[in-house]
Amino acid sequence: MSTVEIVGFPQSTYVRVVRMVCEEKGIEYELKSAAPHCPEVAAIHPFGKIPVMRHDGFELCESKAIATYLDLAFPGPRLIPAEPRKAALTEQWVSLVNSVMDGTMVRQYLFAYVFPKTADGSPDRALIDKVMPTVTEQLGVIDRRLAKSEFLAGDAITVADLNLLPILYYLQRFPEGAAAVNGLPHLAAYYRRAATRPSFERTIPPPSPPRQARAS
Ligand SMILES: N[C@@H](CCC(=O)N[C@@H](CS)C(=O)NCC(=O)O)C(=O)O
């Protein structure tokens, strides 16, 4: 089989998710840095979002779909468990993070620092202060889950964890986000353990997201 091509900026949390899947499974892949909506991306994703993937003539978009393909098409540890309840819990936590928490933690909190809409380009303090209680509340939901199991879907790492960790990485880069994560004992311990995994270390994004990533 030919090398998997992942297309998208390495700063994107969703791009990092699929890279971490490759790393955890030992899949050989090439990362091609590309902006959302560029022709190469728009040819595969109907709404121009990153990541997109190419493999052996097969093109695919949407991070969860790409993760599922990689998990099923390649050998290596199963990242979406075969056991029905664990598989369903994996889906549940991906969905909760992508449909609710990504909006609060990435699109509002992180973007208030990285892509502020303030006149002078300084961090959007009003938005940060407004959104932090919700960020903390949502992190508490994850902390309570992690009080019960080592990983989100049970006792082994799954796509659910790989989908969350890139967001936690960015939260740790900013003061309120770091304080919120580190103030929750189960979540903080989970993050410390996960951050030592080669899949995490080998996919750490370059320091600053390109301006073109702004549209979302
Ligand atoms: N549901 C998509 C979301 C991907 C996504 O929102 N990617 C962002 C970068 S992190 C993007 O392409 N934003 C540009 C846009 O939405 O126009 C997935 O899971 O792959």
Contiguous low-pLDDT stretches (5 residues minimum) are 212-216
N-C termini distance: 33 Å
Largest sheet, described in full? 4 strands, mixed
Give the rounded overall mean pLDDT: 95
Shape: globular
Helix/sheet category: alpha+beta
Portion in helices:
40-55%
Multimeric state: single chain
Radius of gyration: 17 Å
Strand content: 5-15%
Q: Output the number of helix runs.
A: 9
Q: Name every ligand kind in the structure.
A: glutathione
In brief:
The protein is α+β, with helices and mostly antiparallel strands.
Lay out the secondary structure.
Blueprint: E1 4-7, H1 13-25, E2 29-32, H2 39-42, E3 52-55, E4 58-61, H3 63-73, H4 84-114, H5 125-146, H6 159-171, H7 175-182, H8 185-194, H9 198-201
Can you walk me through this structure?
With about 220 residues, the protein is of the alpha+beta class. About 55% of the residues lie in helices and about 5% in strands. It contains nine helices and four strands. The protein has helices spanning about 15-25, 40, 65-75, 85-115, 125-145, 160-170, 175-180, 185-195, 200; strands at about 5, 30, 50-55, 60. A four-stranded mixed beta sheet has the order 2-1-3-4, covered by helices on one side. Helix 1 runs parallel beside helix 3 and helix 5 (about 125-145) packs parallel to helix 7 (about 175-180). Residues about 210-215 have low confidence and may be disordered. The structure holds glutathione (GSH). The site of glutathione has 12 residues, from helix 1 and helix 3.
Key descriptive features of the protein:
216 residues, 7% strand, alpha+beta, single chain, disordered C terminus
